Amino acid sequence: MNLLIMRQAKKDNKTVMPPSNHDEPVKFETIIFDLDGVIICSLPVAREAYYAAHEAIVGGEPPPFTEYQKYFGRSFPEILKIMGLPIEMHKVFKAESNRRMSMIEVYPGIRDMLESIKNAGIKTAIATGKDWERATATLEYLDLLKYFDLVLGSDLVEKPKPAPDMALKAMETLTANPQTTLFCGDAVADVMCGKSANIRVAAAFWGEAMEDDIMALNPNYVLRHPPELIDLIGIKDRA
Q1: Cα dist from 163 to 71, 96, 151, 174, 217, whole Å
Q2: pLDDT tens for residues 168-200?
Q3: What is the pTM of this model?
Q4: C-alpha 127: how far from its chain's center?
Q5: d(Cα 186, Cα 69) in Å, to the nearest integer?
Q6: What are phi and psi of 147, to 5 degrees?
Q7: Which residue from 33, 120, 148, 163 lies 20 to 30 Å from 154 (Cα-Cα)?
């Protein structure tokens, strides 16, 4: 069995609604997705590229990858700054990541989920810590770009995640109503971005998310499998 599928098989298959959430059912018309950890599994690529970049620029023992992982969702230059690492690592990290693009996998169920969302006429955007060029190239390589109306990289806004700028820009570009917009992400930065933009947030836990840190921020919804997003937004009821 594929490792990706095995990891998902171990997950609880029930959508969890946090006890503090009392939202009425919402007919979502716009969904903003994070990319890595939600649409694609790129963790092995990030791990190898991080270590390769550190070895090339700094050398010696790098900070643990788990420390870097805490800041997922943010731009890589910002993560380097937070961790006290040289910005020169960024260029090497990008090159090493691009060289390993064939290692990236699409999570099981994602293509069907995106197809259903597209057919329902729901607007979609990507808001990622990657720069726009690398995000677009990744989506094209995996034949996923066709499912998104907008791709926002961290280089296209003044303040990337966890600031609200990416969510606000996505809604402005797509003429979306905040009341019917959902942010689906797997990182602390995603939840903070969505909440600070005053939109509902669904935490996607079908990848390698740091669940305790995310749950501490009280996302509106918790999803364990991609098809649960279809149930949440009620696509079947719109037919």
Answers
A1: 13, 27, 17, 19, 15
A2: 999 999 999 999 999 999 999 999 999 999 999
A3: 0.89
A4: 7
A5: 11
A6: -90, -5
A7: 120
pLDDT (tens digit, 9 = 90+) per residue, 16-59?
A: 454 344 456 789 999 999 999 999 999 999 999 999 999 999 99
Instruction: Check if the beta carbon of residue 211 is closer than 8 Å to that of residue 13.
Output: no
Tokens of 126: 């990507």
State how far Cα 157 lies from the chain centre.
Answer: 17
User: Among candidates 236, 35, 13, which has minimal Cα distance to 117?
Assistant: 236
Residue 22 token pair = 């009392």
Residue by residue, DSSP assigns 13-61 as -S-B--TT--PPP----EEEE-SBTTTEE-HHHHHHHHHHHHHHHT-SP
Q: How many CB atoms lie within 10 A of CB 83?
A: 14
Residue 133's φ and ψ, nearest 5 degrees, are -60, -45
Tokens of 113: 């989920």
Which residues lie closer than 8 Å to 111 by C-beta, 6 or more apart?
144
Q: Is 141 helix (H, G, I), strand (E, B) or coil?
A: helix
Cβ neighbours of 198 (radius 10 Å): 12
The residue count for the chain: 239
Q: What is the identity of the amino acid at 87? A: I
Report residue 116 as tokens: 């259903």
